[in-house]
Amino acid sequence: MQAKGFVRTIEIDRPSLSDNTADAGRLEQSLKKELCADKISIPLHILKKLPSNLRSWNFKAKAVLFKTQSSWIVLELLDTLLDISVLGAAIDIGSTRIVISLIDLETGQEIGEQGFDNPQAVIGPDILTRIHYSNHDEGLAELNRLVIDAVNWNMSKLCKEHGVQTKDIYLVTAAGNTAMTHLFLGIESFEIIKEPYIPCVNIPDTLAADSLNLDINQNGVAFLFPNIGSYFGGDLIAGILFSNLDQKEDICLMVDVGTNAEIVVGSRDFLIACAGAAGPALEGGVSKMGMTAKPGVIDKVWIDPETNDLKIHTIDGKKPIGICGSGMIDLAAGLFLSKRIDIRGKFSKAICKEQLFEQDGIMSFTLVDENQSATGEPICLSQVDLNSLTSSKAAMFTILEVIVCNTAGLTFKDLHKFYVAGTFGSFINPGSAISIGMLPDIPLDTFEVLGNSSLGGAKVLLTNPDAFERVVEIRKSITYIELNVNQEFMNMFSGAKFYPHTDISRFPSLQNKIEADKRLLNIG
Amino acid sequence: MQAKGFVRTIEIDRPSLSDNTADAGRLEQSLKKELCADKISIPLHILKKLPSNLRSWNFKAKAVLFKTQSSWIVLELLDTLLDISVLGAAIDIGSTRIVISLIDLETGQEIGEQGFDNPQAVIGPDILTRIHYSNHDEGLAELNRLVIDAVNWNMSKLCKEHGVQTKDIYLVTAAGNTAMTHLFLGIESFEIIKEPYIPCVNIPDTLAADSLNLDINQNGVAFLFPNIGSYFGGDLIAGILFSNLDQKEDICLMVDVGTNAEIVVGSRDFLIACAGAAGPALEGGVSKMGMTAKPGVIDKVWIDPETNDLKIHTIDGKKPIGICGSGMIDLAAGLFLSKRIDIRGKFSKAICKEQLFEQDGIMSFTLVDENQSATGEPICLSQVDLNSLTSSKAAMFTILEVIVCNTAGLTFKDLHKFYVAGTFGSFINPGSAISIGMLPDIPLDTFEVLGNSSLGGAKVLLTNPDAFERVVEIRKSITYIELNVNQEFMNMFSGAKFYPHTDISRFPSLQNKIEADKRLLNIG
Question: Which of helix, strand or coil describes residue B264?
Fold first, then answer.
């Protein structure tokens, strides 16, 4: 039960001959006191019946509020005797999946959550395709309609399931990447993907929900988290809010491992951010490895300490059908730690033995043979797949090193916490990621999984009025670093393509192992 | 041709890899520089097509702007190559008559003006009747619809006559008294006329024209001048703006002689205001004397210096049908200066002779006999009519004295200018008003007629962006004095009921004359 959210019960001073302040001024005074605010905005729809309402409600009212850039706005004024829900909806506008959380604004409690696939996928699975589509004819309107209709349909479903009404939703907070935010607002997005990569808007105002065609209360408003630029979106600002990175005494890092890798390092004193999309090294992306998690997908791989065999775990324990991203990282770690691949990321015939085969001149490793696979086909990892994973893990490490060491002038040991955001990140085993040199070799308890931090941040904003100022401050204070893919970066990247790295001193927990391998290969 | 209005042609910096500010941020920067402003608000409808518009317009645009309480708002962004009018409408929302002035916002020039009767008169001629009506069933909605429909119809007519379109009107500024402002906004007004006389709102925000059902550009806005309280409305704030009272080095006074007398005295250093409606002495009002000005109405009366007869002038030189308020003041002055009434305002049989007659015990003075009247009836002034005028003129003088002398601690001689606002005031002959002791005995060239200062102020706000800040400042800085009708007021009022006053030293220009009369009547 929260004390001070966006719903406040207030008492208004009664007028008299010695105090003939207007009713609106009277309401404003009460709210200023209650909110410790400078400026209150009372829209026309509330003014219209304010005199008779105040008098019939005995000068008591329940105010539904929101904080905008310049003032607090009164969204609704209700009779304190009425038993009406006052709701808010937090939305994570993912390009793949959208999640809505319905919150009781009076108690701050979550009423329910609803996830669904982003229907814009019918236009194209990736953002680039969608933005290209948005640039033709009615493409933008269609993409906008797809997402808004789906949000409306699912909000309505969620409300029905919990016996509440969409008209009682007064507030929507939504976080998405820059492109998704533009498409949600129906704003032209084409320049985002074209050099010099210019978003239309970074700080959308608080908007009338009606102007976005959101089916909530007709006087409701929507707030979209601001972006830093084309490649650092509101979802990450929401993540910073959710992780409290901006309030930490000690330096922490947050990484969102999605199609791009977006990283923020900092504390209450500074915030430095960068996004991986700037570098061609990340093309394809870390999370594109493997298939989407579903029953039968291999999500964990480990070495049997007795046999040195690779063991697998599938989602729901079903017969394996393939492997997902986090499984791939486990697999690479297992291959490396069992010496099935060497420090260059090449398969070792001597160790792999019959699990290795060659097809069209490319070596492949059989993880699951056709007899144990659900598809009747073996589940294999080719050298090409492995090289792609190697590039991705190297890019991730290089970006981390660029921002933490080269830019912020820190070492990884200075990181008090290493937050992993995003759905994909939630499943990564940090131990495996360290083993392959994707994440830095810091104590395992430094790593913390945030889950859907974009949704989490949107929820914080719905329930904590102080969060608005923090969002504005985070947006203002972030130093965004353009990843400069120059010779220095490429040199660092080359080193990071080894397992775990050419410079073994960066991975002390693996050092002994690597020294041995190095002697074997006459490197370093 | 004004240099800097609400329409500005701006150039926007082009984006580059080294400056990837969002398009909205880029537009904001340009406007901040152009306007020397802190905060610019760019609404969604402009953002939606901003990227392609900026690029196809070669990063040049014509911005239509307005200043709101907290920021500048971009109402529209236009291609500089398009030849489109950008218009504003200033409205004086009088309870009797409404006047619309159509302004070209680019040049600041008036395109045309249209006056029409306030159609709310079908509900009732006076504000009290209308507000009572607004309190029943759909009364408020009907009164609101009447005024808005009439404004829309007349704006459209005005536009057609001048070959422009209502959709090119982006800005409406309107000034009216507190009740008219509430009815224009469709806000409950009943508490305005009920003790303790509480308006719903004194400072309406800038509103979407759409939310007021004004048929202008769909993204246009409307600004209603703020009120001080129930009896000091936006029309007077507009008047102060128009007269520049708030910027005067020397102390000036503005009086709006309407149903009430509203007075402001001050300079750039202070503003003190009061309104006559607080005192029962003003009941009936100064302007209610006589009939509305129209052809045949006596608007001027003077003494023939040779014959000492009273001469009349009628509007359009038609045969007389009655007398209007300004004619009444002239008549009273003529009666007094010709000694037909004494200093107590009583008819003198000795001087009036056969022009005076008695009916039902009440003396009446025949100004025009039945042969010269257009109606076949004589035009007379009864002692009852005269007493009513005496009360009104005494109330006006007392209020002036209370605010100028008792409250501001000045003398009338300190007034650099005495502005007379309002339609009724425009026709008053200051010499006559001084002669009867209605206005103070100060040099005639001190008086200046402002005309429709409410419309004038609304026009200033349309054409001069600096005016907005002045309106806010005027609203904030006015000290509003409740007219306290106590024993002291009643004593002053009693003295002011004489012609011109019991204390003749206050009217030095009439002193000789009065001394003679006093001796005659043994007063003083």
Answer: strand
Task: Report pLDDT digits (tens) over B111-170.
Answer: 999 999 999 999 998 899 999 999 998 999 999 999 999 999 999 999 999 999 999 999
B73 phi/psi in degrees, rounded to 5:
-115, 135
The distance in angstroms from the start CA to the end CA of chain A is: 60
Chain A residues closer than 8 Å to B131 by CB: none
Residue B277, pLDDT above cutoff 50: yes
pLDDT at A519: 56
Give the distance, in angstroms, between the CA of residue A252 and the centroid of all CA atoms in the same chain.
17
Beta bridge partners of A314: A298
Contact B248, B263 (CB under 8 A): no
Report the gap between the CA of A196 and the closest CA in chain B (Å): 5
**Surface of A (230-289) touching B: CB under 8 A:** 230
Chain A residues lying within 8 Å of B222, measured CB to CB: none
End-to-end alpha carbon distance in chain B:
59
CB nearest A200 (choices: B50, B190, B191): B50
- For residue B114, the one-letter residue type is Q
Instruction: Give the residue among A293, A355, A353 at the shortest CA–CA distance from A328.
Output: A293
- Residue of B42, B44, B71 for testing the chain A interface, max A β-carbons within 10 Å: B44
Please report, for residues A279, A392, B399, B408, B501, the alpha-carbon distance to residue B405 in angstroms, rounded to integers and kept in the order given.
Answer: 78, 85, 10, 6, 16
Q: Which amino acid is at B308?
A: N
Residue B519 pLDDT more than 70? no
Asked if residue A104 has pLDDT above 50, the reply is yes
Q: Touching check for B20 and chain A: CB below 8 Å?
A: yes
- B68 part of contact set with chain A, CB < 8 Å: no
Residues A53-75 have a mean pLDDT of 94
Cross-chain residue pair B20–A49, CB shorter than 8 Å: no
CATH 3.10.20.880 domain range(s) in chain B: 7-78
Q: Are B225 and B174 in contact (CB under 8 A)?
A: yes
Per-residue confidence (pLDDT) for residue A286, from 0 to 100: 54
Read off the pLDDT of residues A498-523 as tens digits, 9 standing for 90 and up.
999 999 889 998 877 656 555 555 44
pTM of the model: 0.90
Q: Check if the beta carbon of residue A392 is closer than 8 Å to that of residue A416.
A: no
Domain A87-224, second-level architecture = 2-Layer Sandwich (3.30)
* CA dihedral of residues B402, B406, B410, B416 (deg, nearest 10): -10
Domain with CATH 3.30.420.480 in chain B: 87-224
This complex has an ipTM of: 0.89
Q: Is A193 touching B (CB cutoff 8 A)? A: no
Asked if B474 contacts B246 with a C-beta cutoff of 8 angstroms, the reply is: yes
Nearest to A253 by CA among A388, A439, A3: A439
User: Does the structure show a pLDDT above 60 at A412?
Assistant: yes
Residue B371 in 3-state DSSP?
A: coil
Q: Is the pLDDT of residue B371 over 90?
A: yes
Rounded Cα distance between B86 and A56, Å, is 45
Q: Looking at residue B482, what is its pLDDT?
A: 79
Q: Read off the pLDDT of each residue in B55-67 and give the average, rounded to a whole number.
A: 97
Q: Which of A17, A70, A204 sits opposite B196 (nearest CB)?
A: A17
Query: Does residue B71 carry a pLDDT above 60?
Result: yes
Per-residue confidence (pLDDT) for residue B516, from 0 to 100: 57
Residue contact A42–B17, C-beta within 8 A: no
State whether A188 and B48 contact (CB < 8 Å).
yes
Pick the CATH number of A7-78 from 3.10.310.10, 3.10.450.50, 3.90.1150.10, 3.10.20.880: 3.10.20.880
Least Cα distance to B463 among B103, B167, B98, B77 occurs for B103
Residues in A touching B47 (Cβ below 8 Å): 185, 187, 200-201, 204
What residues contact A522, with CB distance under 8 A and at least 6 apart?
Answer: none
